[in-house]
Amino acid sequence: MEVRCQMTSKRLHSEDQLVEMVLDMPAAPLPRGFVGTFGFSESEIESEALRLHYTIGQPMRWSIDVCRSLSPMTLQINKLKKEKGVFLIAHSYQTPDITYGVADSVADSYALSKEARDSPQQTILFSSVRFMAETAKIVSPHKTVLHPSPDAGCSLSDGITAEDVISLKEKNPGVPVVCYINTSAAVKAECDVCVTSSNYLKICERLPGEKVIFVPDRFMGKHLQDSLRGKKEVLIYDGECEVHAEFTGKKIRKWKDNMSNHGIDLIVLSHPECDSEVLQESDFVGSSESLKEEAIRLAGEGKRDLMLITECGTADRILAETNNHLNLMGSCVMCRHMKKTQLEDILQALTDPLPQQIVEIDERTIRRASRTLEEMFRLAE
């Protein structure tokens, strides 16, 4: 079901200036149970609720009452971060109470991996899915890495094993193996270079030889095949992101035709984890961070009718960070893995982490996977 709602932008102070959204979005997560005050005063809690409400910028989904129910936890998490010297990073697909309430940095996996490596803090809390927390541990083996939701997986990462990669290498000796960052530490350890959605084209072009193996995303692999046709042969694996696999070229064409019949020139922004038909129907293809930046740029130019083909968290970030009037159309797809983490999980991991919330990887795997990531950093610069 598509939900049409009008939202007042957090930075637009005139009541007749509205951010209009024609987009099916999930409800804001409520506390799982009773939340105390953690010793904060009523005025402190109210001030924090107003900060969340204003910063998130979606007054219908994230009402002041919702923000008020969450504000004791954001206050306590931010207090504990400072006391314990924890650098809290969150992927763009996390919910706004995390990304704008408690995170020190929010970005896509590539940028966050670098920030985890370069941060002065010796403890990293990564609000994300498991492979991302593993990646932070690989690049910062001497640091403590906390992952609040150890059962938060990923259809791409869970769909391939180290044994699968070894088998591919045995069948194709000497061919470089490129793995998408959405893979486990064990898979990265068997590959030659890791890539992200923002650099996979550049890196694969730079690799020597006339053939490359790309794992595990078949949609990104197909995009690589099309982009490198005549230059390199690309062998692909049969994995997919369950979120981006939901989108089809047919659905996008239908939306564009419907909008065109109403005199609206719909601009489609898509993530490269989508099918090639989706990318062909798109006006812009890029990583989560690139999609956000492009949408904000277009809104600043008065191009307000946009369709986002990615996970719902990107729409949340655009709505929070734009000053301009825009229409987001279509339907986003929520990642059930990314949305497993709530403020309670982060608070628990900060207060008294369980053994499974502390990311541990054996030294051999770290050493081999680290070479894969270092090669990515080298080739992407």
Regions with pLDDT < 50 over 5+ consecutive residues?
A: 1-21
Share of residues in strands: 15-25%
Which oligomerization state do the chains in this entry correspond to? single chain
| Euclidean distance between termini CA atoms | 43 Å
Count of strand segments: 14
Please give the CATH class of the largest domain.
Answer: Alpha Beta
Question: Which class of secondary structure composition applies to the elements?
Answer: alpha/beta
Strand order of the largest sheet: 1-2-14-13-11-12
CA gyration radius, whole angstroms: 21 Å
Instruction: Characterize the biggest β-sheet.
Output: 6 strands, mixed
The CATH superfamily of the largest domain is known as NadA-like
CATH architecture of the largest domain: 3-Layer(aba) Sandwich
The best one-word shape is flat
Secondary-structure element series: EEHHEHEHEHEHHEHEHEHEHEHEHEHEHH
Query: What average pLDDT do the residues reach?
Result: 90
- Total domain count: 3
Description:
- The chain has 381 residues and is an alpha/beta fold.
- The protein is built from 16 helices and 14 strands.
- It folds into three domains: 31-152 and 338-357, NadA-like (Rossmann fold); 156-240, NadA-like (Rossmann fold), CATH 3.40.50; 244-331, Rossmann fold (3-Layer(aba) Sandwich).
- Helix 2 runs parallel beside helix 15 and helix 4 (109-118) runs parallel beside helix 5 (130-139).
- The longest helix is centred in the first third of the chain and has 21 residues, at 64-84.
- It starts with a strand and ends with a helix.
